[in-house]
Amino acid sequence: MPQHQPPARPRDSEASKARLLKAATDEFAARGIAGARVDRIGAAAEVNKALIYTYFGNKEQLFDAVMDAHVARVLDEVPFTPEDLPGYAGRLFDFLLANPHQLRLATWHRLERSGTDHEPQGLGTSMRQKTAAITQAQTAGLLTTTFTPEDLLVFTLALANAWMPTSPMATNDQAAEQTRQHRAAVVEAVRRLVAGIPTTQAS
Amino acid sequence: MPQHQPPARPRDSEASKARLLKAATDEFAARGIAGARVDRIGAAAEVNKALIYTYFGNKEQLFDAVMDAHVARVLDEVPFTPEDLPGYAGRLFDFLLANPHQLRLATWHRLERSGTDHEPQGLGTSMRQKTAAITQAQTAGLLTTTFTPEDLLVFTLALANAWMPTSPMATNDQAAEQTRQHRAAVVEAVRRLVAGIPTTQAS
DNA sequence: GTGTGTCAAATAAACAGTTAGTTGCACTAC
DNA sequence: GTAGTGCAACTAACTGTTTATTTGACACAC
């Protein structure tokens, strides 16, 4: 006859799901899908392992849920401005710096989950919207036509990521100053990418 | 009483090591350290699993050996030209395209092995040499001083990677044409980064 | 025979996923 | 109010499999 602990917490499936997502985010960001341990996620969330399967299905689907949430957050919190790509790069830089899990999760996804059918919700749509917006800005003469919209988007994202640490950094004054300089360099780099619309080169 | 096969292959530990490295490269590139299976590597190399431990120690050390070999290959095959960073980016692009495992291996390393003490042999030295060479080119007036040497190196590498597929691509004519255009865009992007020294262009 | 390369088999731990059952709680009937 | 009911939230223990790593014996070259 199994003994049960008195429940310290009131029953609340939504709160449990939220705690699971948080714990899963940490675990997946640190170790990826193959390296993540379902037991550890359950323990960290203080939730019984079996609930992971009732709420999310399996390990992969839990990862997908984590990805969906995080993709939604970037898209929501970093507004896209096709006529100001340097500014966009700067804001993306800031966001990734403030949310160190994001880049690692995205990278794990590329390595472990690309080639499967599942793509984070809203990502494809958002990419299409962004390239369309760039095309429009180019047509309006607000943006260089030296590059295709896809090139501009891909390069801007690449440059915003370029200086991002994959493992968490120290947070002293010297590091903060370095970070500020890296940010400035990224913005300047994108400025140079998009520079030279008006007169110098005719299209 | 164990049955033994007649030895189909002559004994050659060097050849076995080489086959193991090849098989390990494929396995690690596809699945990373946590996802890799020692059994699969042994089977693919047609080498008994136990030899992996004799020759390389354990799974992680085998991965490190794979990384060392691949880092050495990039450094060897892609000459660095600080006064012609666009050309370097182009050559790196070509190399990564011809060696699709490289980028994935490097990415797995960043995710799963950074923060440990092991760094691929020669990588730190090579980075230091490259930034020093950039500094020299800047002092000689051959290269923009808008960016620090570190910025220039990091951005060039980021742009060369930007269009690289993480999963293997189809190889039809249309894709080849797209690849050519991507390469040109990458080179042009780096050109814009380094542009704007006093005279128009030095040869 | 000695040493080195090779192998099948063994081992012990770790793993994702399941099951059968318990508990808290809102609601209803009285 | 309180006894009864249904159900969702939760749990401990377990299952069968997979895993990295080790072992001890075999075979061939010298």
TrEMBL record, chains A, B:
DNA-binding region(s) in UniProt: 37-56
Domain HTH tetR-type: 14-74
Keyword DNA-binding included in the entry's annotation: yes
One Gene Ontology molecular-function label: DNA binding
Keyword presence, RNA-binding: no
Keywords: DNA-binding
Signal peptide location: none
GO terms classed as biological process: regulation of DNA-templated transcription
Pfam families: TetR_C_21, TetR_N
Protein name as catalogued: Putative TetR family regulatory protein
Organism, scientific name: Streptomyces olivochromogenes
Lineage: Bacteria, Bacillati, Actinomycetota, Actinomycetes, Kitasatosporales
